[in-house]
């Protein structure tokens, strides 16, 4: 536990002081998936779901959630989020969600990207649950980050789930 910056030597949690860190451009990308029945995917494709444009709602929900990350995660810093893109792609068995968040600040945006993906996924499930009780959120993860003291990182391709390569 000593390698985790948000834990003191006695094991208690605290907010890391980033005052002395340099402001740098930072970016993080996360992905996740909502699995659902093929009939639900067909309804998403043809826009026939009774609650309206599910993917548009999910995109806006993800962006709004990324902005509120410090309200949800008690040790996250309030930062200036300068960009947030949510891409949704229909797969044969669900929806692929990708969020990329950018800032120029003293700390990264990995949690903002993950929050965007998972809340977008929640919005999809909320809008399809009446028609498809099998819907499930799966495999949310950071796939890349850049900037800051630790530099660039990308998840190795062999660690990505198969569905990430479907289309």
Q: What is this structure's SSE topology?
A:
Layout: E1 24-35, H1 38-46, H2 54-67, H3 69-72, E2 81-91, E3 94-105, H4 110-128, E4 136-146, E5 153-154
Helix pairs in contact: 2-4
Description:
The protein has one domain (24-147): Alpha-Beta Plaits (2-Layer Sandwich), CATH 3.30.70.640. Helix 2 (54-67) runs antiparallel to helix 4. It is elongated and about 50 Å long. It is 28% helix and 29% strand. By secondary structure, it is an alpha+beta fold. Strands 2-3-1-4-5 form a five-stranded antiparallel beta sheet. The N and C termini lie far apart (40 Å). A hairpin with a 6-residue loop joins strand 4 (136-146) and strand 5.
Q: Return the CATH topology.
A: Alpha-Beta Plaits
Question: Class by helix and strand content?
Answer: alpha+beta
The top-level CATH class is: Alpha Beta
Oligomer: single chain
CATH architectural category: 2-Layer Sandwich
In angstroms, what separates the terminal alpha carbons? 40 Å
Major beta-sheet overview: 5 strands, antiparallel
Mean pLDDT: 90
What is the chain-wise order of helices and strands?
EHHHEEHEE
